[in-house]
Every structure is written in structure tokens, then in C-alpha cells.
Amino acid sequence: MSTVTDPRSESTTDEHTVDLAITGMTCASCSARVERNLGKIDGVDAVVNLATEKARVSHPESVSIDELIATVEKSGYGATVIEPEARLAPPKHTPVARADLARRAIVAGALAAVVVLLAMGPWSFPANPWLQLLVTTPVVVWAAWPFHRAAFVNARHLASTMDTLVSLGVSAAYLWSLVTLLTGAGQDGHYYFETAAVITAFLLIGRWLEARSKDEGRSALTELMDLGAKGVAVQRIDSRTRATTEVILPLDELQVGDHFIVRPGEKVATDGRIIDGTSSIDTSLVTGESVPVDVRSGDTVDAGTVNTSGRLIVEATAVGSDTTFAAIVRLVEQAQTGKADVQRLADRVSAVFVPAVLVVALLTFVGWWIGSGSATTAIGVAVTVLIIACPCALGLATPMALLVGTSRGAQKGILIKGPQVLEDTRRIDTLVLDKTGTITTGVAQVTDLAAAPGLHPAAVLSAAAAVESGSEHPIARAIVRRAQDQGIKIPRITDFESLPGSGAVATIKGTRVTVGKSDLFDEVPPELATLERRGTTVFVGWERKARGALTVADEVRDTSGDAIRALRAEGLQVWLLSGDAEHNATAIAATVGIDAEHVIAGVRPHDKHDVIERLQGEGRVVAMVGDGVNDAAAIVRADLGMAMGTGTDVAMESADIVLVHADLESVPRAISLSRETLKVIKQNLGWAFGYNIAAIPLAVAGLLNPMIAGAAMAMSSVLVVLNSLRLRRVLPDD
């Protein structure tokens, strides 16, 4: 784990890395411009992420952070340094911008409906066009203001984006209608107020959907930090009385060397070493291990893990950014950088398309004025060019397909976060699966029960459940639950004694019965010892001899085997990553049909992340499926991240796709839906661009008028919507 030597940058020899929060970006052209301008500085390498509104910049020592910020500001955007401490705090989530877009979309939609009714209805009266003007004006001036403002900012820096196209299209339709109405030329013509209003409403809805997807993606770190401890009970020695007292402190005031208390059910506040007490620690947050680990004095514990039973006193060995938990946060954040977004295609083309349209419109005006001798005719043709080039279909291409695709997915238990998740689904060739909670149920259960010759298995279970009824250990609870499920009456015990880290002993009807690890017995029959290879095994016996054994492990989901075989039949290479012991992971893999060479056991969160990165480095396109916090960094690092909906919130928030149903059969369905949605988006974009490329020459030639241009523009939008609606039939009904 790298350490931060500068409060504003991470240093490796002469190169530093700093994270910047970027404000004012509205599309991929914006992030590309910031990235490009930063990259012009010698020795600087920048990756700007539009979804997270952050930039990770590597720079030599000779380039100051102030210079980097100044470069961003000269590009027309704001920049501030993300301090290391702020990175570890829950990110502030402010949905103000999203709410503003929603308000504008609702108002624009309602008013646009009125304008369409006035313009298209079977009535004609003198005040009609004036009413259209009255209703359309707030749509164009107020509702469409975000587009106009962004277009103006880009124009100041001699640049253009999708906002420029929208602003020009809406303004052209509105101003043409306004001039026609004020000059009285509209008696035999047509007004295009409804065009301006409808375009604004549609595109605001698309922009709102986009903003919502970004906000959902940014909430991953908030959910992750919410899983950490909020406060800590620290031991303090009174300087006068020398008495030891407990003081509740905020987590950020904890220091290395402090002794803090962790009671049963509490989360471990920070990385540390146990100096007193014994217990079992649920480490699934960090390691993914399905069965709690027994700990005692001298053992280490990680921040965010949960104390399940005894009281512990822990000495803090790392705090803040140096903890394992903080490392997971950094991995999630770093892996988010550079996520692809399918809408970048439209924004990249628009950067060239808009200036080209402006030049074509200007040349058209000049050519027709010279050729016809009429400025009025020339203006009409030039405005037709602008209207026919308005990117209504272009703006609808992605959000409409995404809306239909995600709605269909939700019906089938597949939640797609946004368009950025679809880029690499067509080329996915490797699928990496977490074990606990993904292939398996994630709940500890008794999977095997064996008895020595001459003893009935029910007697073994009865004795084990009786002794374990005095313990709160998760393994003990699993054994007691198995006995209860089988209707076995659990005998009463006396003289219960816990053996920390080993097991427990109690008296049943005068016999001292031991339950625990094999080293508690002098003799373990071979037929019982074989169970140790199948999972976490506890032995039951008396008189120093083991009389029975029970294996506690995760149970494989009923659908896992069929789903994995189906994925392999599609040509996908399936891997299993797990924090469990190797014999457990290998046994599970064999059960569901995963090759032994594709099993990696005993992995920690950064190991999972690194495995994904290594596979990608080999040229593979990787999908990761998991359910725990320990999977979050790997899920985000993967080209396609999937989380089981029964897992932790952070896994679901970090994933590109959430599988609501707790089975792997949803995985092939999710991949199919993602690929089809991406295919439709590309078809929509192809049509939108193709429409403009074909229609603009007709407009330049004077073969169209604004009314035909408006109709063609509306038809292009209808075709995009109809094509998107085909996604409702992608996944067959059960």
C-alpha cells in the first residue's frame, strides 16, 4: 500500500499524482478538452472521468498543482484538490442539479403538450399563434437555459458540444417562428413553436436520465464509507487517579497506539492488534471468508470487520488512509477512473458537426442571396439547414434505448445502471465469479454429518447441538439450527466451558462432551478425518476420542451449475475467486464445473482487483460477478461489473449491473440484454447521423422548407423511439 507523503499528492520518485474535482462539465467533449489541455503540459498525464467529475493527474515535481488548476480554469471549468482525508470521508451527495433538470423537464413537457395541441389541433383562430408564442417562450428561455448557457461557455473557448447543437436547433426553430409571426408572413406559412418546445422537453428528459445515472454511480463510495465504524470507545488513564476510563471519540481522533474496545456486535474501528480478549471475527467485509475467524490476544484485526462474540481490547496499528478498509475505498475510486461512455461517440462527432453545419448554413445563405437576389429566400433556406440539422434524434438515441432496455431488464430482475456499462459487453470473453453469496448462498450450514461405527448420526448431531447451544459462535448456531430443523430434541447441559479458538465442553447426563477442532482429541478415526477436506469441520466426542464430525460450509445455489455450464458453452472462460480456504473453493468449483486451474483461493480485496487487472493485461475483456464489499474494487475494475442483489449495498452501487434474483441464471440474461441495448443505441446513433448527412444536402439545395424540415426531424425521433421499443422483446417471458 502506498503512503501519502504530500497532503495534496502521492509521490513516487519524481512523479506525483493528484486527484482534482472538476466542475462545469456537461458532456464528453468537456472532459476530453480538460484532458487534452492538461496533457499539453510537459510530463503531465491526465485521465478525466465525466461520471465522477474527477481527474487523476500524474505530474513531475517541476509542475505545481496550482499550474494544473489554472490550466483547467483556462479551459472554462473549475478545479479543486481532493485532499486525502476528504477522500476517506463519505462523499457529499447533493441532488440539486438533478432536481433542477427534473423541474425543467416537467415544465417543458407540460407546456410542449399545450403547444402541440394548439399547433396540430383542428382549429384556427387569430390568437392561436400568439398563444403558441406565449406558451413556448418560457420553454425556450427558461427550460432550455442549461443548453444555452453551456453553448455560450463553449463558444467563449471556441469549442462546440451537443449543447451547442441543441441550443442552435431550439433557437432557430423559435426565432424563425417569432420573425414569421411579427412580420405577418405566417398567414400562408407555418410556425415551428411546437418544434422548439418538443425538442427542449425530449432533450431535458434525456439529460435528466443521464444525470441520475451519474449520481447513482457516485454513491458507491458513500455506501462503502457507511459500512465503517462511526465512533470508537478508547481507554484513557486519568493522570491523577491513574484509573482507566472509557472515552467515546470520533473515528478521526483515533491515533496509532490507542487502546480501543470492541464489544460483541460492534465493528472494528481501525486496523489493530488484540491485547486482551478472545472472540470470533466476521471478516467477510475484507476477505470474503464465509465463516468467522477465531481470534485471541496477539492476533491482528482489520477495520470494518465485525466482532461476533467476546469483548476485545485492541491496540490501533494504523488509522485513516493507512487501513485496509481505506485501501478498499481507494481501489474503488481509482478503478472508476476512465470508465467508457457510449455517448462519447455523439459528443466527439458533434465537435466537428456543429462548426460544419454553421459553415454550410452561412454558405447557403450567401449562395442563395446571390443566386436568387432575395435575402428573405436566402434566410429561409439557411434556417431550414439549421432546423434539419437539429440533433433531436441524436439526443434521444442513447437515453431512449437505455430507458426501454433498463425497464425491460428491471422486469426480469436485471438492473442496468447507465449507458457506460454497455461498451464492452459485446466482446466479453472472461467471467470472474466470487464464491460466497454468488455461487453459494452465503449462509453457513451443516453440509456433512458423519458418525463413528456403532453410533447413529442423529446422536452425534444431538450431542453437538447440546454443547453448542451454550455458544453464540456462528458455527454453533448453524449446528443448533440443523438439529432444530430435523426435529431433534436438544438435551440440557451443565458446566459449559468455552475453549477460545478451539471449541467448547459441557456435561450431558454425566458425560463430559467436547465439540471443536481435531487437536482436542487424542484419537480421530480416519473415516471422520476425511471430512476436514470438505470445509470447516468440528468434531464431537468424549473420553478424548472423536465419535462424530460435522462440516459447516456454504451451500451451492441450485442454479449455479447450470448457469456456469451455459456460460462456458457460449465460449466464456469462467474463473472463481474466493477468500475461503483452497480446499473449500476447489470443492465448490468442481461441483459447478469450473476448472481447477481457474480457481484462486485465499484472496484479499486488492488481490481480486489485481487478478482482474492481470486478465485485462492479457487482452481479455472481463466481467466480474460478486456480492460483498470485498468484491467492490474488482467489480468496478472489470469491463463489466455485476452484483447479486442479495449482497451488500456497496457491491450493488459499485456494479454496472445488479442482478436482483439470487441466482447465476441472471448473468447470461444480463449479458444478452446489455449487448442488445448497445446494439440498438448504435443503430439509433447511426440513423441520427445518417439522417442529418442525407437531409442537409436536400436543405441546401432548397428542396425542403422549414415545415418539411420540422416534419422530418419529428419523424427521425419517432423512428429512434420505435427502434428502442424493440428492446421490450429481448428477453422472453417465463
TrEMBL record:
<feature type="transmembrane region" description="Helical">
    <location>
        <begin position="131"/>
        <end position="152"/>
    </location>
</feature>
<dbReference type="Pfam" id="PF00403">
    <property type="entry name" value="HMA"/>
</dbReference>
<keyword id="KW-1133">Transmembrane helix</keyword>
<feature type="transmembrane region" description="Helical">
    <location>
        <begin position="684"/>
        <end position="701"/>
    </location>
</feature>
<feature type="transmembrane region" description="Helical">
    <location>
        <begin position="105"/>
        <end position="125"/>
    </location>
</feature>
<dbReference type="InterPro" id="IPR018303">
    <property type="entry name" value="ATPase_P-typ_P_site"/>
</dbReference>
<dbReference type="InterPro" id="IPR023214">
    <property type="entry name" value="HAD_sf"/>
</dbReference>
<feature type="transmembrane region" description="Helical">
    <location>
        <begin position="707"/>
        <end position="725"/>
    </location>
</feature>
<protein>
    <submittedName>
        <fullName>Heavy metal translocating P-type ATPase</fullName>
    </submittedName>
</protein>
<dbReference type="InterPro" id="IPR059000">
    <property type="entry name" value="ATPase_P-type_domA"/>
</dbReference>
<keyword id="KW-0812">Transmembrane</keyword>
<dbReference type="Pfam" id="PF00702">
    <property type="entry name" value="Hydrolase"/>
</dbReference>
<keyword id="KW-0547">Nucleotide-binding</keyword>
<dbReference type="Pfam" id="PF00122">
    <property type="entry name" value="E1-E2_ATPase"/>
</dbReference>
<keyword id="KW-0479">Metal-binding</keyword>
<dbReference type="InterPro" id="IPR036163">
    <property type="entry name" value="HMA_dom_sf"/>
</dbReference>
<dbReference type="InterPro" id="IPR036412">
    <property type="entry name" value="HAD-like_sf"/>
</dbReference>
<dbReference type="InterPro" id="IPR027256">
    <property type="entry name" value="P-typ_ATPase_IB"/>
</dbReference>
<dbReference type="InterPro" id="IPR023298">
    <property type="entry name" value="ATPase_P-typ_TM_dom_sf"/>
</dbReference>
<dbReference type="InterPro" id="IPR006121">
    <property type="entry name" value="HMA_dom"/>
</dbReference>
<dbReference type="InterPro" id="IPR008250">
    <property type="entry name" value="ATPase_P-typ_transduc_dom_A_sf"/>
</dbReference>
<dbReference type="InterPro" id="IPR017969">
    <property type="entry name" value="Heavy-metal-associated_CS"/>
</dbReference>
<keyword id="KW-0067">ATP-binding</keyword>
<feature type="transmembrane region" description="Helical">
    <location>
        <begin position="191"/>
        <end position="209"/>
    </location>
</feature>
<dbReference type="InterPro" id="IPR044492">
    <property type="entry name" value="P_typ_ATPase_HD_dom"/>
</dbReference>
<keyword id="KW-0472">Membrane</keyword>
<keyword id="KW-1003">Cell membrane</keyword>
<comment type="similarity">
    <text>Belongs to the cation transport ATPase (P-type) (TC 3.A.3) family. Type IB subfamily.</text>
</comment>
<feature type="transmembrane region" description="Helical">
    <location>
        <begin position="164"/>
        <end position="185"/>
    </location>
</feature>
<feature type="transmembrane region" description="Helical">
    <location>
        <begin position="377"/>
        <end position="404"/>
    </location>
</feature>
<dbReference type="InterPro" id="IPR023299">
    <property type="entry name" value="ATPase_P-typ_cyto_dom_N"/>
</dbReference>
<feature type="domain" description="HMA">
    <location>
        <begin position="16"/>
        <end position="80"/>
    </location>
</feature>
<feature type="transmembrane region" description="Helical">
    <location>
        <begin position="349"/>
        <end position="371"/>
    </location>
</feature>
<dbReference type="InterPro" id="IPR001757">
    <property type="entry name" value="P_typ_ATPase"/>
</dbReference>
<keyword id="KW-1278">Translocase</keyword>
